[in-house]
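Re: your question from the hallway

Yes, I did run it. Sequences:
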Amino acid sequence: MSDQTTTGHHQQTSPLDDDDLLIEILLPMPPQPSSLPRVSLVCKRWRRLVSNDPSILRRHRAHHRKPPLLGFFEHRLFFPDHSCRLDVDDILFNPIPEPPDRIPPQLFSMERFPASTGWATRLLSCRHGHVLLLDTSGNFFVCDPVTGGHVRLVIPPEFTDLFINAAVLCAAGDEDEGHVHGTCHWSPFKVVLVAMFGNDGRPMVCVYSSETGLWGNTFRHDGPGTFRDSGASSTLIDHALYWEIDAYNGGHMARAVLGFDLDRQTLTVIKGPPMECSDSSQIVKAMDGGVGFATLSYPTLHLRVWHWNVNVCQDDVATWSLVKTVDLQSIFGLQEHIQRLQVSERRDFILGYDEDDGVIFINIHSCLFMLQHDSMQFKKHYERTERGHLSICYPFRSFYPAGDYSYLIGPSIVGETQCN
Amino acid sequence: MEVDKGKGEAEETRKVAEADRDTVTLKSSDGKLFEVSKEAAARLSTVLAGMIAGGSIDDNGTDLKQIGSEALENVVDYCNKHANSIPSAALISSSISFNTAPFKEPEEWERKFVDRLSHDALFDLVEAANFLGMERLLDVTCHKISEMMKGKSPDQIREVFNIKNDYTKEELEEIRQELAWAFYDD
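Structure:
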């Protein structure tokens, strides 16, 4: 019973003594990884509730719905002896939160996966707790860094000789009742494979479903134009995935946006907003939930945010409204720092995008900034000195069930899938 | 509803003339009477809704023996404030299953309402809300207690809530080592 002293004329009890009420009190504890481990050290009964009961962990996640941003994966390019082979160590997890919510990178190391070193050539996508890699044999490798679950996917033959790009996502939609992204470990997932067809440079897409274990039909864009993949990461907006691609027209190149609607299974290509070829760019989620586009000009460091006027779109010709131009030098307080540098020393790029919070990862010289494109709130993540190469940041969001999480590993994500 | 009927004791002399009153009278464990809007009580408390529908409401004061007068006053105060502040449908989601319903952050007035409560009053209100099946009030009060734990070390939580540590030093050390990253700053 309670340790509380008796006051007044009725027996004072504490809701903390009642398991059901204690659970109600612990559910609002923040979704950050250290929250529940820390309360589990209060006493043994608390630990029993938060560590050993999967249903309480599930309720904790359902309560918060949005998983925390734990960090990002990046592909550090390193060429030993000038060879083109990359080591598996090069795909690294980079934690973002401060302690005690900072997950040590080694816990999400790619080395724990059974393949030997030298097997991953490209990091392609990171979403809903899954990481998608391309291995040296030219096949996909989907893994769940939290549980260690993984599967190898054989790429359909018509894509094998092409430069491919791909996105991974949970098969459940945001509105699916009972599903919370960030707990997708045992849930079915999809891989959306995109490439430009060799003969005419037309985009084509094929979707793998882990529910069926099969690749579906290939969808081809039937509009005019020749395109090339830019290798950029995908952005998921509503029920569609978007990639930046390059459009060629009579020797002239322009940035375009390739969209694949997952529900209707339709491909669209729209012309991007005006930009210089030295600009860095990123597809973002507009404030109204539509498609937006951010460009970072070099060397002036002006960030422009555009929104696609979807209602005015005709024949794949989009109109874009410039909604914002901001001077990042003044926002980040970098004027003096930048003036001291030669332009040739500068390295200013958009490196990634967290679609859940609308945060753009921007590298300016040696600093990585995280900027929310609606509020313009920003955080300097770190200043780095040791690296020569800039790599794309793939934000990783997940609930992190510290302790025993073997029950999370579903049978669907361990194994090997052959192409049908 | 300008008159705050939840404050203080209801008048002893009040006579009930009509059967279809729009308020119900609740009696705390220590015999104090409180009047609350029937509509708000039925909407916010599954237990009171059941009693109203089942006709087990006593016009001279429905006995709630498990709830002291301070907690019951807060319950009634919450019901009245809720009736005045919130468009009714906003927080009622009976069709969504409890386990998956997304939590709605407390409104500003709900925060103020729980912030002014003492530690004991807050705990009593959690139990009263639980007893009366007041899901939203339970959420808001539990959220407040949870906020009091946020950012605190296990030692600090034990101290604030007067909880006995039943771990041995060795057991604590073992768990800490297992999850060293989560206890970086303690």
